[in-house]
Amino acid sequence: MTEPREGPPSALPAGPAPLVDVLIVGAGFAGIGMGLRLEREGRHSFTIIERAGSVGGTWRDNTYPGVASDIPSHLYSFSFRQNPRWSTRFAAGPEIRAYLEQCVLKGGLLPHLRLNTELLQAEWNQDEGCWEVETTNGVYAARSLVAAAGRLSEPKIPAIPGLDSFPGPLFHTSRWPEGIDLEGLRVGITGTGASAVQIIPQIAEKAAGLVVFQRSAPYVVPRLNRRYSVRERELFESRPDLLEASRDQAFRQAEAGFPSRLGTEPDLSDQRARWRNHLDAQVEDPALRLALTPDYVFGCKRILVSDDYYPALTLPGVTLETSALVSIEGRRVAARNGRSHDIDVLILATGFHSTQQPFAGRVTGRGRVLLADHWSNGMTAFASTVVSGFPNLFIIDGPNASLGHNSAIHMIETQIDYILGALDHLARHPGTDLDVTAEAEAAYSRSVDEAAARTVWLTGGCRSWYVDERSNRLTLLWPGLAESFRTQNGIFDPAPFDPAPAPGRGEADTTTHTPHT
Ligand code: NAP
Asked: Which GO terms describe its molecular function (predicted)?
Protein backbone atom coordinates (compact mmCIF):
# COMPACT_ATOMS: atom_id res chain seq x y z
CA MET A 1 0.00 0.00 0.00
CA THR A 2 1.26 3.49 -0.84
CA GLU A 3 2.37 5.43 2.18
CA PRO A 4 1.68 9.15 2.47
CA ARG A 5 5.38 9.98 2.59
CA GLU A 6 7.46 12.40 0.60
CA GLY A 7 4.63 13.36 -1.72
CA PRO A 8 5.23 15.97 -4.40
CA PRO A 9 4.26 19.55 -3.60
CA SER A 10 0.51 19.70 -4.16
CA ALA A 11 -0.28 21.94 -7.11
CA LEU A 12 -3.10 24.41 -6.66
CA PRO A 13 -5.16 25.66 -9.56
CA ALA A 14 -4.45 29.26 -10.58
CA GLY A 15 -7.20 31.81 -9.91
CA PRO A 16 -9.42 32.42 -6.90
CA ALA A 17 -8.41 30.81 -3.62
CA PRO A 18 -10.20 27.52 -3.02
CA LEU A 19 -12.73 28.05 -0.26
CA VAL A 20 -13.02 25.27 2.24
CA ASP A 21 -15.17 25.04 5.29
CA VAL A 22 -12.22 24.03 7.48
CA LEU A 23 -8.49 24.42 6.97
CA ILE A 24 -6.37 22.34 9.32
CA VAL A 25 -2.75 23.31 9.90
CA GLY A 26 -0.58 20.30 10.65
CA ALA A 27 -0.80 16.57 9.97
CA GLY A 28 0.30 15.17 13.30
CA PHE A 29 -1.96 13.41 15.82
CA ALA A 30 -4.18 16.50 16.26
CA GLY A 31 -4.62 17.40 12.58
CA ILE A 32 -5.14 13.80 11.52
CA GLY A 33 -7.65 13.26 14.32
CA MET A 34 -9.57 16.37 13.29
CA GLY A 35 -9.60 15.26 9.66
CA LEU A 36 -10.75 11.75 10.54
CA ARG A 37 -13.67 13.04 12.57
CA LEU A 38 -14.70 15.54 9.88
CA GLU A 39 -14.64 12.80 7.28
CA ARG A 40 -16.65 10.45 9.49
CA GLU A 41 -19.24 13.16 10.09
CA GLY A 42 -19.63 13.64 6.35
CA ARG A 43 -18.08 17.11 6.40
CA HIS A 44 -15.94 16.76 3.33
CA SER A 45 -15.07 20.44 2.79
CA PHE A 46 -11.71 20.52 4.53
CA THR A 47 -8.04 20.60 3.71
CA ILE A 48 -5.06 19.65 5.84
CA ILE A 49 -1.86 21.55 5.11
CA GLU A 50 1.42 20.10 6.31
CA ARG A 51 4.78 21.80 5.93
CA ALA A 52 6.73 18.55 5.78
CA GLY A 53 6.73 15.99 3.00
CA SER A 54 4.95 13.36 5.10
CA VAL A 55 2.53 13.02 7.99
CA GLY A 56 3.08 12.07 11.63
CA GLY A 57 4.20 15.25 13.41
CA THR A 58 6.35 14.45 16.38
CA TRP A 59 6.47 10.79 15.37
CA ARG A 60 7.83 11.72 11.94
CA ASP A 61 10.37 14.22 13.29
CA ASN A 62 11.72 12.17 16.17
CA THR A 63 13.66 9.25 14.74
CA TYR A 64 16.33 9.00 17.43
CA PRO A 65 17.26 5.52 18.68
CA GLY A 66 14.82 4.33 21.33
CA VAL A 67 12.04 6.79 20.46
CA ALA A 68 8.81 5.49 21.96
CA SER A 69 5.68 6.62 23.74
CA ASP A 70 5.59 6.63 27.51
CA ILE A 71 1.80 6.26 27.50
CA PRO A 72 0.47 2.70 26.95
CA SER A 73 -0.24 2.04 23.26
CA HIS A 74 -3.90 1.10 23.75
CA LEU A 75 -4.45 4.53 25.26
CA TYR A 76 -2.07 6.39 22.98
CA SER A 77 -4.29 5.96 19.91
CA PHE A 78 -7.65 7.28 18.79
CA SER A 79 -10.64 5.89 20.71
CA PHE A 80 -12.52 5.73 17.42
CA ARG A 81 -9.71 3.99 15.54
CA GLN A 82 -8.17 1.54 17.95
CA ASN A 83 -5.39 -0.79 17.01
CA PRO A 84 -5.42 -4.32 18.47
CA ARG A 85 -2.04 -5.11 16.91
CA TRP A 86 0.37 -2.92 18.88
CA SER A 87 3.43 -5.08 19.34
CA THR A 88 4.44 -3.74 22.75
CA ARG A 89 2.73 -2.17 25.75
CA PHE A 90 4.52 1.11 24.97
CA ALA A 91 4.74 1.49 21.21
CA ALA A 92 7.98 2.52 19.54
CA GLY A 93 8.03 5.68 17.43
CA PRO A 94 8.08 3.99 13.98
CA GLU A 95 5.03 1.90 14.90
CA ILE A 96 3.12 5.01 15.99
CA ARG A 97 4.10 6.77 12.80
CA ALA A 98 2.89 3.79 10.77
CA TYR A 99 -0.40 3.85 12.72
CA LEU A 100 -0.90 7.52 11.81
CA GLU A 101 -0.09 6.83 8.17
CA GLN A 102 -2.69 4.06 8.16
CA CYS A 103 -5.20 6.46 9.71
CA VAL A 104 -4.60 8.84 6.81
CA LEU A 105 -4.88 6.14 4.17
CA LYS A 106 -7.79 4.18 5.58
CA GLY A 107 -9.60 7.23 6.92
CA GLY A 108 -9.85 8.77 3.46
CA LEU A 109 -7.65 11.77 4.23
CA LEU A 110 -5.27 11.57 1.26
CA PRO A 111 -7.48 13.70 -1.05
CA HIS A 112 -7.58 16.39 1.66
CA LEU A 113 -3.87 16.44 2.35
CA ARG A 114 -1.48 19.07 1.00
CA LEU A 115 2.09 18.14 1.85
CA ASN A 116 5.05 20.54 1.58
CA THR A 117 2.63 23.35 2.28
CA GLU A 118 3.65 25.63 5.13
CA LEU A 119 1.39 28.27 6.64
CA LEU A 120 2.98 31.66 6.05
CA GLN A 121 0.16 33.80 7.32
CA ALA A 122 -3.51 33.65 8.10
CA GLU A 123 -5.64 36.76 8.34
CA TRP A 124 -9.27 37.06 9.37
CA ASN A 125 -11.40 38.82 6.76
CA GLN A 126 -14.34 40.27 8.67
CA ASP A 127 -16.30 41.28 5.57
CA GLU A 128 -16.20 37.85 4.04
CA GLY A 129 -16.27 35.97 7.32
CA CYS A 130 -13.35 33.74 6.51
CA TRP A 131 -9.66 33.20 7.05
CA GLU A 132 -7.39 34.14 4.17
CA VAL A 133 -4.41 31.88 4.33
CA GLU A 134 -1.14 32.23 2.50
CA THR A 135 1.05 29.17 2.27
CA THR A 136 4.30 28.23 0.55
CA ASN A 137 2.10 26.42 -1.95
CA GLY A 138 -0.72 28.80 -2.76
CA VAL A 139 -3.52 30.63 -1.00
CA TYR A 140 -6.66 29.34 0.66
CA ALA A 141 -9.80 30.78 2.16
CA ALA A 142 -11.49 28.95 4.99
CA ARG A 143 -14.55 29.63 7.11
CA SER A 144 -12.76 28.05 10.06
CA LEU A 145 -9.11 27.54 10.82
CA VAL A 146 -7.91 24.71 13.05
CA ALA A 147 -4.36 25.15 14.34
CA ALA A 148 -2.95 21.69 14.99
CA ALA A 149 0.69 22.65 14.64
CA GLY A 150 1.94 20.86 17.74
CA ARG A 151 3.57 22.20 20.86
CA LEU A 152 6.79 20.23 20.65
CA SER A 153 7.79 20.91 17.08
CA GLU A 154 10.32 23.77 17.28
CA PRO A 155 13.67 22.57 18.66
CA LYS A 156 15.18 24.73 21.39
CA ILE A 157 18.86 25.31 20.65
CA PRO A 158 20.71 26.63 23.70
CA ALA A 159 22.92 29.70 23.27
CA ILE A 160 26.14 27.99 24.41
CA PRO A 161 29.21 30.13 23.71
CA GLY A 162 31.34 28.45 21.04
CA LEU A 163 28.56 26.18 19.74
CA ASP A 164 29.48 27.22 16.18
CA SER A 165 33.07 26.15 16.68
CA PHE A 166 32.18 22.49 17.29
CA PRO A 167 33.54 20.66 14.24
CA GLY A 168 31.85 17.27 14.54
CA PRO A 169 28.26 16.22 14.04
CA LEU A 170 26.05 18.42 16.20
CA PHE A 171 22.29 17.99 16.19
CA HIS A 172 19.07 18.29 18.15
CA THR A 173 17.30 15.06 19.16
CA SER A 174 14.39 15.81 16.82
CA ARG A 175 16.76 16.20 13.86
CA TRP A 176 18.62 12.90 14.19
CA PRO A 177 20.83 12.41 11.10
CA GLU A 178 19.69 9.40 9.09
CA GLY A 179 22.14 6.53 9.29
CA ILE A 180 24.61 8.17 11.69
CA ASP A 181 26.82 5.57 13.35
CA LEU A 182 28.08 6.49 16.80
CA GLU A 183 30.11 3.28 17.18
CA GLY A 184 33.53 4.07 18.58
CA LEU A 185 32.92 7.84 18.84
CA ARG A 186 33.11 10.04 21.90
CA VAL A 187 29.64 11.47 22.39
CA GLY A 188 28.35 14.31 24.55
CA ILE A 189 24.67 14.82 25.26
CA THR A 190 23.22 17.84 26.99
CA GLY A 191 19.81 17.62 28.63
CA THR A 192 18.22 14.79 30.61
CA GLY A 193 14.52 15.03 29.70
CA ALA A 194 12.16 12.48 28.13
CA SER A 195 14.12 12.32 24.87
CA ALA A 196 17.55 11.96 26.50
CA VAL A 197 16.54 9.11 28.80
CA GLN A 198 15.40 7.13 25.79
CA ILE A 199 18.53 7.86 23.74
CA ILE A 200 21.22 7.39 26.40
CA PRO A 201 20.70 3.62 26.96
CA GLN A 202 20.71 3.07 23.19
CA ILE A 203 24.06 4.73 22.59
CA ALA A 204 25.91 4.19 25.89
CA GLU A 205 27.40 0.85 24.90
CA LYS A 206 28.11 1.76 21.27
CA ALA A 207 29.99 4.97 21.88
CA ALA A 208 33.66 4.97 22.84
CA GLY A 209 32.65 7.29 25.64
CA LEU A 210 29.51 9.17 26.63
CA VAL A 211 29.35 12.35 28.68
CA VAL A 212 25.91 13.33 29.96
CA PHE A 213 25.47 16.99 30.95
CA GLN A 214 22.65 17.10 33.48
CA ARG A 215 21.40 20.52 34.59
CA SER A 216 18.61 19.04 36.72
CA ALA A 217 18.08 15.40 37.59
CA PRO A 218 14.77 13.93 36.43
CA TYR A 219 12.59 11.54 38.42
CA VAL A 220 12.66 8.22 36.58
CA VAL A 221 10.21 5.41 37.45
CA PRO A 222 9.89 1.83 36.12
CA ARG A 223 8.57 1.44 32.59
CA LEU A 224 7.75 -2.28 32.62
CA ASN A 225 7.39 -2.53 28.89
CA ARG A 226 6.68 -5.90 27.34
CA ARG A 227 5.75 -7.45 24.01
CA TYR A 228 2.19 -8.52 23.42
CA SER A 229 2.10 -12.19 22.40
CA VAL A 230 0.49 -13.24 19.14
CA ARG A 231 -2.30 -14.81 21.20
CA GLU A 232 -2.94 -11.55 23.07
CA ARG A 233 -3.08 -9.57 19.85
CA GLU A 234 -5.50 -12.05 18.34
CA LEU A 235 -7.64 -11.73 21.45
CA PHE A 236 -7.65 -7.92 21.23
CA GLU A 237 -8.64 -8.27 17.59
CA SER A 238 -11.52 -10.67 18.19
CA ARG A 239 -12.66 -9.15 21.49
CA PRO A 240 -12.86 -5.35 21.18
CA ASP A 241 -14.27 -5.29 24.71
CA LEU A 242 -10.88 -6.52 26.00
CA LEU A 243 -9.08 -3.82 24.06
CA GLU A 244 -11.49 -1.24 25.47
CA ALA A 245 -10.93 -2.60 28.97
CA SER A 246 -7.14 -2.38 28.56
CA ARG A 247 -7.49 1.20 27.37
CA ASP A 248 -9.80 2.07 30.21
CA GLN A 249 -7.49 0.51 32.79
CA ALA A 250 -4.52 2.50 31.47
CA PHE A 251 -6.59 5.68 31.62
CA ARG A 252 -7.72 5.04 35.21
CA GLN A 253 -4.18 4.18 36.31
CA ALA A 254 -2.88 7.42 34.84
CA GLU A 255 -5.68 9.44 36.45
CA ALA A 256 -4.77 7.91 39.80
CA GLY A 257 -1.44 9.72 39.51
CA PHE A 258 -3.08 13.15 39.54
CA PRO A 259 -3.65 13.68 43.31
CA SER A 260 0.13 13.53 43.79
CA ARG A 261 0.40 16.56 41.47
CA LEU A 262 -1.69 18.44 44.02
CA GLY A 263 0.75 17.38 46.72
CA THR A 264 -1.91 15.12 48.28
CA GLU A 265 -0.59 12.61 50.82
CA PRO A 266 0.01 9.71 50.93
CA ASP A 267 -0.17 9.82 47.12
CA LEU A 268 2.88 12.06 46.75
CA SER A 269 5.04 9.99 49.11
CA ASP A 270 3.87 6.74 47.52
CA GLN A 271 4.70 7.96 44.03
CA ARG A 272 8.06 9.32 45.15
CA ALA A 273 8.83 5.97 46.79
CA ARG A 274 8.43 4.28 43.39
CA TRP A 275 11.24 6.48 42.10
CA ARG A 276 13.42 6.01 45.21
CA ASN A 277 13.09 2.21 45.08
CA HIS A 278 13.84 2.22 41.36
CA LEU A 279 16.99 4.30 41.81
CA ASP A 280 18.19 2.28 44.80
CA ALA A 281 17.57 -1.00 42.98
CA GLN A 282 19.45 0.09 39.87
CA VAL A 283 22.32 2.23 41.18
CA GLU A 284 24.65 0.97 43.90
CA ASP A 285 27.11 3.85 44.10
CA PRO A 286 25.88 6.34 46.76
CA ALA A 287 27.62 9.27 45.02
CA LEU A 288 25.87 8.48 41.74
CA ARG A 289 22.57 8.06 43.57
CA LEU A 290 23.04 11.50 45.09
CA ALA A 291 23.88 12.99 41.69
CA LEU A 292 20.67 11.49 40.32
CA THR A 293 18.48 12.84 43.10
CA PRO A 294 16.27 15.72 41.95
CA ASP A 295 16.19 18.89 44.07
CA TYR A 296 12.52 19.65 43.44
CA VAL A 297 9.19 18.04 44.30
CA PHE A 298 8.23 14.82 42.56
CA GLY A 299 6.10 15.58 39.49
CA CYS A 300 7.12 19.23 39.07
CA LYS A 301 8.77 18.29 35.76
CA ARG A 302 7.51 15.44 33.61
CA ILE A 303 8.09 12.10 35.33
CA LEU A 304 10.11 9.85 33.07
CA VAL A 305 9.67 6.13 32.61
CA SER A 306 12.66 3.94 31.86
CA ASP A 307 14.11 0.63 32.96
CA ASP A 308 17.48 1.11 31.30
CA TYR A 309 18.38 4.77 31.92
CA TYR A 310 19.91 4.39 35.40
CA PRO A 311 21.80 1.18 34.46
CA ALA A 312 23.25 2.96 31.40
CA LEU A 313 24.73 5.64 33.66
CA THR A 314 26.61 2.97 35.63
CA LEU A 315 28.49 1.69 32.56
CA PRO A 316 32.27 2.23 32.62
CA GLY A 317 32.43 4.54 29.58
CA VAL A 318 29.66 6.85 30.80
CA THR A 319 30.31 10.06 32.75
CA LEU A 320 27.54 12.05 34.39
CA GLU A 321 28.32 15.74 34.80
CA THR A 322 25.90 17.28 37.24
CA SER A 323 25.94 20.67 35.62
CA ALA A 324 25.00 22.21 32.32
CA LEU A 325 27.25 22.39 29.31
CA VAL A 326 28.35 26.03 29.28
CA SER A 327 31.16 26.47 26.77
CA ILE A 328 32.60 24.88 23.67
CA GLU A 329 35.95 25.37 22.01
CA GLY A 330 36.34 23.09 19.04
CA ARG A 331 35.98 19.54 20.32
CA ARG A 332 36.53 20.57 23.93
CA VAL A 333 33.27 21.03 25.80
CA ALA A 334 33.05 22.27 29.37
CA ALA A 335 30.49 21.98 32.13
CA ARG A 336 29.64 24.75 34.59
CA ASN A 337 31.53 22.83 37.30
CA GLY A 338 34.75 23.47 35.33
CA ARG A 339 35.32 19.94 34.05
CA SER A 340 35.86 19.54 30.34
CA HIS A 341 35.88 16.69 27.82
CA ASP A 342 36.96 16.09 24.24
CA ILE A 343 34.10 14.71 22.17
CA ASP A 344 33.40 13.87 18.51
CA VAL A 345 29.62 14.24 18.46
CA LEU A 346 27.34 16.58 20.41
CA ILE A 347 23.63 15.85 20.88
CA LEU A 348 21.32 18.62 22.03
CA ALA A 349 18.51 16.98 24.03
CA THR A 350 17.35 20.41 25.07
CA GLY A 351 13.64 20.29 24.35
CA PHE A 352 11.31 22.54 22.39
CA HIS A 353 9.86 26.03 22.26
CA SER A 354 6.54 25.18 23.84
CA THR A 355 5.26 28.35 25.47
CA GLN A 356 5.69 30.61 22.45
CA GLN A 357 4.41 28.74 19.46
CA PRO A 358 5.68 30.03 16.12
CA PHE A 359 2.29 29.77 14.38
CA ALA A 360 1.00 32.53 16.71
CA GLY A 361 3.29 34.96 14.91
CA ARG A 362 1.52 34.15 11.65
CA VAL A 363 -2.14 34.48 12.63
CA THR A 364 -3.89 37.88 12.56
CA GLY A 365 -7.38 38.33 13.95
CA ARG A 366 -9.90 41.16 14.18
CA GLY A 367 -8.41 44.66 14.10
CA ARG A 368 -5.21 43.16 12.66
CA VAL A 369 -4.13 41.89 16.08
CA LEU A 370 -1.44 39.24 15.92
CA LEU A 371 -2.11 36.14 18.02
CA ALA A 372 1.46 36.33 19.34
CA ASP A 373 0.69 39.86 20.61
CA HIS A 374 -2.58 38.72 22.18
CA TRP A 375 -0.44 36.11 23.91
CA SER A 376 2.43 38.43 24.86
CA ASN A 377 1.96 37.46 28.51
CA GLY A 378 1.46 33.77 27.81
CA MET A 379 -1.12 31.69 25.92
CA THR A 380 -4.80 31.95 26.88
CA ALA A 381 -8.00 30.63 25.34
CA PHE A 382 -11.55 29.88 26.36
CA ALA A 383 -12.12 26.14 26.73
CA SER A 384 -8.40 25.92 25.91
CA THR A 385 -9.50 26.17 22.27
CA VAL A 386 -10.94 29.57 21.19
CA VAL A 387 -9.43 33.04 21.51
CA SER A 388 -11.28 36.36 21.72
CA GLY A 389 -10.78 38.49 18.61
CA PHE A 390 -9.93 35.45 16.48
CA PRO A 391 -13.29 34.30 15.12
CA ASN A 392 -13.68 30.74 13.90
CA LEU A 393 -10.14 29.89 14.99
CA PHE A 394 -9.74 26.66 16.95
CA ILE A 395 -6.47 25.65 18.55
CA ILE A 396 -5.67 22.07 19.44
CA ASP A 397 -2.80 21.36 21.86
CA GLY A 398 -2.64 25.05 22.75
CA PRO A 399 -3.24 26.82 26.07
CA ASN A 400 -3.65 24.41 29.02
CA ALA A 401 -4.53 21.52 26.75
CA SER A 402 -1.62 19.20 27.55
CA LEU A 403 -1.37 16.77 30.42
CA GLY A 404 1.44 15.92 32.80
CA HIS A 405 -0.14 12.66 33.93
CA ASN A 406 -2.29 11.10 31.20
CA SER A 407 -2.69 10.69 27.45
CA ALA A 408 -2.48 13.67 25.08
CA ILE A 409 -4.87 11.87 22.74
CA HIS A 410 -7.68 12.17 25.28
CA MET A 411 -7.20 15.94 25.23
CA ILE A 412 -7.03 16.12 21.44
CA GLU A 413 -10.24 14.13 21.10
CA THR A 414 -12.01 16.34 23.64
CA GLN A 415 -11.01 19.44 21.71
CA ILE A 416 -12.14 17.85 18.45
CA ASP A 417 -15.58 17.19 19.99
CA TYR A 418 -15.78 20.83 21.01
CA ILE A 419 -14.77 22.02 17.54
CA LEU A 420 -17.30 19.74 15.83
CA GLY A 421 -20.00 21.26 18.03
CA ALA A 422 -18.86 24.74 17.02
CA LEU A 423 -18.85 23.80 13.34
CA ASP A 424 -22.39 22.44 13.67
CA HIS A 425 -23.42 25.74 15.22
CA LEU A 426 -21.84 27.70 12.36
CA ALA A 427 -23.58 25.48 9.82
CA ARG A 428 -26.94 26.11 11.51
CA HIS A 429 -26.35 29.88 11.57
CA PRO A 430 -25.05 30.89 8.15
CA GLY A 431 -23.52 34.33 7.93
CA THR A 432 -22.45 34.37 11.58
CA ASP A 433 -19.05 33.89 13.20
CA LEU A 434 -17.93 32.48 16.51
CA ASP A 435 -15.89 34.99 18.47
CA VAL A 436 -15.67 34.23 22.17
CA THR A 437 -15.99 37.24 24.45
CA ALA A 438 -12.91 38.68 26.14
CA GLU A 439 -14.71 38.28 29.50
CA ALA A 440 -15.25 34.57 28.95
CA GLU A 441 -11.62 34.04 27.97
CA ALA A 442 -10.40 36.02 31.01
CA ALA A 443 -12.71 34.17 33.40
CA TYR A 444 -11.57 30.79 32.05
CA SER A 445 -7.92 31.83 32.44
CA ARG A 446 -8.55 32.96 36.00
CA SER A 447 -10.10 29.63 36.90
CA VAL A 448 -7.19 27.78 35.30
CA ASP A 449 -4.71 29.96 37.21
CA GLU A 450 -6.52 29.30 40.48
CA ALA A 451 -6.42 25.54 39.93
CA ALA A 452 -2.79 25.70 38.74
CA ALA A 453 -1.66 27.57 41.86
CA ARG A 454 -2.21 24.43 43.94
CA THR A 455 -0.25 22.07 41.70
CA VAL A 456 3.34 20.89 42.01
CA TRP A 457 3.90 22.30 38.51
CA LEU A 458 3.94 25.75 40.15
CA THR A 459 4.78 24.95 43.78
CA GLY A 460 7.35 22.22 43.26
CA GLY A 461 10.46 24.39 42.99
CA CYS A 462 11.42 23.64 39.39
CA ARG A 463 11.36 25.34 36.01
CA SER A 464 9.74 23.34 33.25
CA TRP A 465 8.47 23.78 29.71
CA TYR A 466 4.95 23.79 31.14
CA VAL A 467 5.38 27.32 32.55
CA ASP A 468 5.58 30.54 30.54
CA GLU A 469 8.86 32.28 31.29
CA ARG A 470 7.31 35.74 30.85
CA SER A 471 4.38 35.47 33.23
CA ASN A 472 5.23 32.37 35.29
CA ARG A 473 1.74 31.12 34.43
CA LEU A 474 1.15 27.42 33.81
CA THR A 475 0.12 27.75 30.17
CA LEU A 476 0.76 24.28 28.77
CA LEU A 477 -0.88 21.91 31.22
CA TRP A 478 -4.48 21.39 32.22
CA PRO A 479 -4.30 21.58 36.03
CA GLY A 480 -6.86 18.88 36.68
CA LEU A 481 -7.93 15.34 35.88
CA ALA A 482 -8.10 14.42 32.20
CA GLU A 483 -11.72 13.52 32.82
CA SER A 484 -12.50 16.99 34.15
CA PHE A 485 -11.14 18.52 30.93
CA ARG A 486 -13.70 16.50 29.02
CA THR A 487 -16.54 17.38 31.41
CA GLN A 488 -15.72 21.06 31.21
CA ASN A 489 -14.65 21.44 27.59
CA GLY A 490 -15.97 18.53 25.58
CA ILE A 491 -19.31 20.03 24.61
CA PHE A 492 -19.67 23.24 22.64
CA ASP A 493 -21.93 25.90 24.16
CA PRO A 494 -22.58 29.12 22.20
CA ALA A 495 -23.31 31.16 25.37
CA PRO A 496 -19.84 32.70 25.88
CA PHE A 497 -19.62 33.87 22.28
CA ASP A 498 -20.29 37.38 21.04
CA PRO A 499 -23.99 37.39 20.07
CA ALA A 500 -23.62 40.25 17.55
CA PRO A 501 -24.38 39.00 14.03
CA ALA A 502 -21.74 39.63 11.39
CA PRO A 503 -22.83 42.89 9.68
CA GLY A 504 -24.24 42.69 6.16
CA ARG A 505 -23.21 39.17 5.41
CA GLY A 506 -25.61 36.85 3.69
CA GLU A 507 -25.35 33.16 3.12
CA ALA A 508 -21.88 32.56 1.90
CA ASP A 509 -20.61 31.24 -1.38
CA THR A 510 -19.29 27.73 -0.92
CA THR A 511 -17.01 27.29 -3.87
CA THR A 512 -14.38 29.96 -4.42
CA HIS A 513 -13.26 33.15 -2.82
CA THR A 514 -11.32 36.13 -4.14
CA PRO A 515 -8.93 37.34 -1.45
CA HIS A 516 -8.91 41.01 -0.52
CA THR A 517 -5.87 42.88 -1.71
P1 NAP B 1 12.64 18.46 27.84
O2 NAP B 1 11.82 17.53 28.63
O3 NAP B 1 12.24 19.89 27.78
O4 NAP B 1 14.10 18.33 28.38
C5 NAP B 1 15.08 19.21 27.99
C6 NAP B 1 16.33 18.95 28.78
O7 NAP B 1 17.33 19.84 28.33
C8 NAP B 1 16.16 19.18 30.27
O9 NAP B 1 16.93 18.25 30.96
C10 NAP B 1 16.72 20.59 30.45
O11 NAP B 1 17.25 20.83 31.71
C12 NAP B 1 17.83 20.58 29.43
N13 NAP B 1 18.15 21.90 28.94
C14 NAP B 1 17.35 22.73 28.23
N15 NAP B 1 18.01 23.87 27.94
C16 NAP B 1 19.24 23.75 28.47
C17 NAP B 1 20.37 24.59 28.51
N18 NAP B 1 20.38 25.79 27.96
N19 NAP B 1 21.46 24.13 29.17
C20 NAP B 1 21.45 22.91 29.75
N21 NAP B 1 20.42 22.08 29.76
C22 NAP B 1 19.33 22.49 29.12
O23 NAP B 1 12.78 18.00 26.31
P24 NAP B 1 12.65 16.53 25.71
O25 NAP B 1 13.44 15.56 26.48
O26 NAP B 1 12.90 16.64 24.26
O27 NAP B 1 11.14 16.21 25.94
C28 NAP B 1 10.15 17.18 25.64
C29 NAP B 1 8.80 16.59 25.79
O30 NAP B 1 8.57 15.78 24.65
C31 NAP B 1 8.59 15.66 26.95
O32 NAP B 1 8.34 16.28 28.16
C33 NAP B 1 7.44 14.84 26.47
O34 NAP B 1 6.22 15.47 26.66
C35 NAP B 1 7.74 14.74 25.00
N36 NAP B 1 8.43 13.50 24.75
C37 NAP B 1 7.73 12.38 24.99
C38 NAP B 1 8.34 11.19 24.80
C39 NAP B 1 7.55 9.99 25.06
O40 NAP B 1 6.36 9.96 25.05
N41 NAP B 1 8.21 8.95 25.32
C42 NAP B 1 9.64 11.09 24.38
C43 NAP B 1 10.34 12.25 24.14
C44 NAP B 1 9.72 13.46 24.34
P45 NAP B 1 16.34 21.39 32.92
O46 NAP B 1 15.47 20.24 33.31
O47 NAP B 1 17.29 21.81 33.94
O48 NAP B 1 15.55 22.53 32.33
From this structure: monooxygenase activity
Boundaries of domain holding 310? 163-218+259-348
Q: For residues 306 and 67, give the distance between their C-alpha atoms in angstroms, rounded to a whole number.
A: 12
- 479 in Cβ contact with 452 (< 8 Å): yes
The CATH number that applies at residue 447 is: 3.50.50.60
Which amino acid, one-letter code, is at 496?
A: P
Residue 18 pLDDT: 79
Ligand 1 centre distance from Cα of residue 194 (Å)? 6
Residues 133 and 174 reside in one and the same domain: no
CA 122/CA 119 separation, integer angstroms: 7
Phi then psi for 465, rounded to 5 degrees? -75, 0
Atom of ligand 1 nearest to the CA of 408: 34
455 lines ligand 1 (CB under 6 A): no
Residue 237 belongs to some domain of the structure: no
Between the CA of 183 and the centroid of ligand 1 the distance, in Å, is: 25
Confidence at residue 515, expressed as pLDDT on a 0 to 100 scale: 43
Q: Which burial class, exposed, middle or buried, applies to 494 when counting CB atoms under 10 A from its CB (0-12, 13-18, 19+)?
A: middle
Using CA atoms, how far apart are residues 265 and 46, in angstroms rounded to an integer?
Answer: 48
Q: Using CB atoms within 10 A of its CB, is residue 77 exposed (0-12), middle (13-18) or buried (19+)?
A: buried
- pLDDT at position 11 over 70: no
Task: Quote the percentage of the chain above a pLDDT of 70.
Answer: 94
Same domain, 208 and 327: yes
pTM, full prediction: 0.93
Give one DSSP letter per residue of 287-301, joined into a string: HHHHHT--SS-TTSS
Q: Of all helices (H) and strands (E), which one includes residue 334? A: strand 332-335
Q: 315 and 183: one domain? A: yes
Residues 205 and 320 in one domain: yes
Those residues whose C-beta lies under 8 Å from the C-beta of residue 488, and which sit 6 or more positions away, are 383
